[in-house]
Amino acid sequence: MAEAKEEDALDFKKLVPVLVVVLVDVLGLTILIPVLPYYAIAFGADALTIGLLGSAYPAMQFIFAPILGGLSDRIGRKPVLATAQMGTFCSLLILGFSGALWVVFLSRILDGITGANLSTAQSVITDSTTKENRARGLGLIGATFGIGFVIGPALSGLALWLSGNNYSAPAFLAAGFAFVSVILTTFVLEETHPPEKRGTAEKAERGLNFGRMKEYMLHPTLGIIFLFVFLNQVIFGSFQLTFAPFTLTKLGLNSLGNVIFFSAFGIISAIMQGGLAGPLNKRFGEQKLVYAGLFIFGLGFFLTGFTPSQPVTWYSRDALVSELAQGAATTTPEALEEQLQLLPEEGVEQGNGGLAYMLFTMLLVPIGFGTLSPNISSLLTKRADPAKIGEVLGVAAAFTALGSVFGPLVGGAIFEGIGPNWVFLIGGIAAFFLLALMWFRLKTVD
User: Fold this and answer.
1) What is the mean pLDDT of residues 362-376?
2) How many other CB atoms are found less than 10 A from the CB of residue 220?
3) Dihedral sign from CA coordinates of 329, 330, 331, 332
4) Which backbone phi and psi does 361 adopt, to 5 degrees?
């Protein structure tokens, strides 16, 4: 009994440094979340263009994440993680100095090329845990993301407030956190994949190509998980950058208003992936939690599709147009007004009922997401060759990125072509179909 408890215990001396690095890195990411779509809107972008912007980063990550994941198996986790964070730092500086929409795209492309942060951090956790406690360890990464989702948007709001709603301020603040993460990785984080454990990694790296990814898709157990990772991210990515246009159209919220949602998302995600991941996994196992998480995730999406159109009581169209014009500091309110089709008209009935409804339904999304994330990663690592865990997680990151490429495009097209509500309605229905597929296939292969 004592031996079992020892196997189940986490070695926090090894985990704390990488979790601190992940937290600082996530802060750099989450500071941007509330403001990036508004940055694009300020340059005259519509929902489809915002979707294209959301696809730029994952398109590059799809190509490069498996390569960097396999490279971490061959040369170690630390240098790959440091390189990824340096790329993030440079991209955020470019974003802060951008004066046109194409420069915003350039910054996201650069970050995507070097964006192996999450998969490499997952490899570090995997190196430092056992099969018995791996879900708990990976859950701590999810909890760290949740904490970042709480603190990051709040810091973004503070930067906007102090700068008079200049959207460059959050970008520079995020760059500062990215630079700190580079320092921590270089001087604090210890290598968890030493040379003596890299014996077969060279073979793994040589296989990192599209043919190898196809081979993984045909694997009897890993293939269905990779398919799930891709389709689930299409659903999730469909609203990530169209979320701001949605709340702008339905509720008249500005970037500061979206802090409420992202902070709530982070709190719930931190609770699910940190405090509850281990106990739930121990009691129910990965597969049951994947089913439950996907159902709750889909339900939250579907119900959000019925959000009523009701601008909040503090909404002012003129004030929001002025904020957007000042945010990018590149145009005038008069010129911007002609390009904005997303804002509710003045004079419509205002109230907070729509906001209250959406706060309730959107809380289901992080509950489902927080249940899904660590258990899917745990399933992958338990069914993968131990010598190729970095590659497998890198390939998973690539399929996530591929889903993130299509997701914003699908979401933007639905938003523009059918209507804002259908982004969530279709996403919820798709999640239920995916649940049925997972239920059948995982029962078949186990």
Assistant:
1) 82
2) 10
3) positive
4) -70, -35
For the segment 69-79, what is each residue's pLDDT rounded down to a tens digit? Answer: 777 777 777 88
Q: Any idea which residue has 């990663």 for tokens? A: 377
Q: Which domains does the chain have, with CATH numbers?
A: 13-191+208-445 (1.20.1250.20)
What are the φ and ψ backbone dihedral angles of 258, each rounded to 5 degrees? -70, -15
How much is the CA Rg of the chain, to the nearest whole Å? 21
Residue 329 in this model has a pLDDT that exceeds 70: no
Q: Check whether 136 has a pLDDT greater than 50.
A: yes
